[in-house]
Amino acid sequence: MKFNIIGEGCLFAAVLLLLLLLQTASTSASAQASPAVLSEWMFAKPRHSNLLKDALRGQTPNDEPADIWSPLPDQGWRPCGECTKSSGKPANSSGYLQVFLDGGLNQQRMGICDAVAVAKILNATLVIPLLEVNPVWQDSSSFEEIFDVDHFIDVLKDDISIVKELPYEYSWSTREFYATAIRETRVKNAPVHASDHWYTENVSPVLQSYGIAAISPFSHRLAFDNMPVDLQRLRCKVNFQALTFVPHIRALGNALVTRLQFPSSTNAPEHGILQDFSHRRNPREPRKFVVLHLRFDKDMAAHSACDFGGGKAEKLALARYRQVVWQGRVLNSQFTDEELRSQGRCPMTPEEVGLLLAALGFDNSTRLYLASHKVYGGRARLSTLKKLFPLMEDKKSLASLEERSRIKGKASLLAALDYYISMHSDIFVSASPGNMHNALVGHRTYESLKTIRPNMALLGQLFLNKNMSWADFRQEVVEGHQHRHGQLRLKKPKQSIYTYPAPDCMCRG
Question: Which of 72, 239, 90 is CA-nearest to residue 155?
Fold first, then answer.
């Protein structure tokens, strides 16, 4: 008995010692962890508890306005028929045109459209654009891995000549070649929003002398104003017809759309086998769903210089991150949070987006697909949105590991999947402006699809009022968004045709 007591005592002491060691290690690790990590995961508490409580209490399917899902009324604009017609391809090419595109998927998409137009201006043969490695997401995906190259070439075959790679005599013209020294075949002084005449005056001589010209950098290097009509229509043709995603992205996108529309019978397979539901005839009506593009990552949170309710620790962490990344070049940091919010310059948190959707009439029966990369604050930040919309899904919840294996860790392909699903949704909502927002707003305008654009200035002011009742908040939101459901807006000077496709890409009638 004495032996057993001693043995148990030794065992107890050993366990206690182990626990103390673990606690010490945990404390040490916490002390070494950056304030940014702590603030992201520990301080994401609701900021609008009064609104949230009433929104959760009043969320019933019967509250949903009958017209919330109704399609847009006919606005008298259609995609121009001339977009599909070719203005003719020159008999002789002036040489090969290379472009190097940086940025994310949608910035590169716009660059591809501009590259086709510049090739047309120069009567050049376009080499399939080279996509630079994204410095933020570290994604090395090529054009061929994202877009259907054969479809791209076929749609544009009567407009310009396109080759997948340079012939052998020009094989020296590579990214590495231009990185090592100044080269006469590289054009690196193209101004932002250059005119068509700039290219004929500055790039044509390079083509004539060397048979090849490589333009880098190329993002936003072609103007939107004072362009020939046929050139604008060609850019529209590239964006809305020639650029389609690779087959496996479309197949996975179709499968996830069907799982959103028919949730009970088409859940993600347990064993990771991709099922093609595109030809299935389901007697039930498909359920409608909303895609929410929630752009609330750490970069945006820090750059905005806004307060997100994480207290002093979060403010300090974001300020430190902002200083490291932008070295004090963020102008927003000179304004107070109240000033920024009242001007609509603060990105909405998941909680605030949820309150917006609830105020517009969406309820806890709404199917919500979350199109987003890494959300600042993770699950803690998303918890309030999930409470309001328990049927919220994303790529991970809808697709199996095997289905996601081909796109895992590839930001461009993940964004392409979200883009595809967004274009097939009944309603699209983008929480903050950006390249994804701009591209989808323009594409859905072209297709006359419903798109809700949050009134950021109005919402910023409403969220500053901590005494506002849910009834007043809801009334203000509904009235402030009456004309923000995707109604067509004509392009103004200096605006992008990819965001505002009318009147360049669309015609009356």
Answer: 239
As given in the structure block, the two tokens for residue 333 are: 């940091």
The one-letter code for the residue type at 260 is L
Closest residue by Cα to residue 275 from 289, 262, 290: 262
What is the spatial distance between Cα 498 and Cα 509, in angstroms, rounded to a whole number?
21
Instruction: Note whether 221 and 344 are same-domain residues.
Output: no
Block residue for tokens 């994604």: 139
pLDDT, tens digit, for every residue of 293-339? 998 989 899 999 999 988 888 999 999 999 998 988 899 989 999 99
The domain of 282 spans: 49-63+246-298+338-432+449-487
Where helices occur in 343-489 by DSSP H, the ranges are: 350-360, 378-388, 395-398, 401-404, 411-423, 435-446, 456-464, 470-480
For residues 212 and 96, membership in a common domain is answered with yes
Whole-angstrom Cα distance, residue 101 to residue 150?
20
User: Within 13 Å and on the Cβ side, how many CA atoms surround 207?
Assistant: 22
- pLDDT one-digit tens code per residue, 351-387: 999 999 999 999 999 999 999 878 898 888 999 999 9
- Ordered strands of the 367-371 beta sheet: 392-393, 367-371, 289-293, 427-430, 450-452
Residue 5 has pLDDT above 50, yes or no: no
Computed over every residue of the chain, the mean pLDDT equals 86
Q: Is 453 left (phi over 0), alpha (psi -120 to 50) or beta?
A: beta
